[in-house]
Design goal:
The chain is of the alpha/beta class. The protein is built from nine helices and eleven strands. It has three domains: 128 residues, no CATH class; 39 residues, no CATH class; 81 residues, Orthogonal Bundle (Arc Repressor Mutant, subunit A).
Length: 268
Amino acid sequence: MLYLSLEDTQRRIKDRLYNLTDSAPDNLYFAVTSGLIGGGLEEQITDFLTEYPATKLVIIDTLQKVRDSKGSAGKAGMYGNDYDDISSIKRIADGFNIAVLLVHHLRKLQDNNDPFNDVSGSTGIIGAADTHFILRRKRSENAATLLVSGRDVEYQELTLQFNDLVWELVERKNSEDIHKAELPKFLFRVVDFMECRTEWVGTATELLTEMKEQEVTPNMVTKYLGQFAYEVLEPLGIEYRTKRTGKSRLIKLLRRDGDDANDAGIPI
């Protein structure tokens, strides 16, 4: 492994390394200086990989240290600069069949809708890289969340704990796990409510009253059942129907007993 630790000194690297281990691997190499992208970096990495062909990982810490802050006049703006710089490094990774990890900074202002928009710079950085990792941690805490996304990997959220200078995996959630966690808990309480019933008919307000539910409003009942009944209730054997009568909307819940032919003839 080659680690370009460009914000450190050799003394600091040595101190941190001895905090981790008394005997570092023979195939671990460090550098504290390098050329820039388009200004010698690619040739330096290529020469190293040619001399040490068993290398499988190159870490560049940080990306900004190997970029030309002035940019190139022939490139089309910030997006073009970002995309071309990352693509130049990616060609080395693809050509030598290795992984290159680029450490980069996040913006101070967070995007609550898409955390990957927090990456400093334009979307060209995300667009050119194969895989993206976002590490979120408060300064005073040892716990952190690592968000993972990419072309060939499923979106994941990893909960990590920093203990004795090592990040330990506490929990891993994939896209399906995250989606299930976001489902309204009210729906599963409806399933529990129907456990001892074959059917129930009434308004949303009446349903809340019988369930002794205080966390949900009648409008939310209608919204949740209409949006998630097929996804949550149906697989658990609960059929949802609705019909407007006069000034009210009736809800009908049926617990299937395995004889769908009989259930189909029940009008609401």
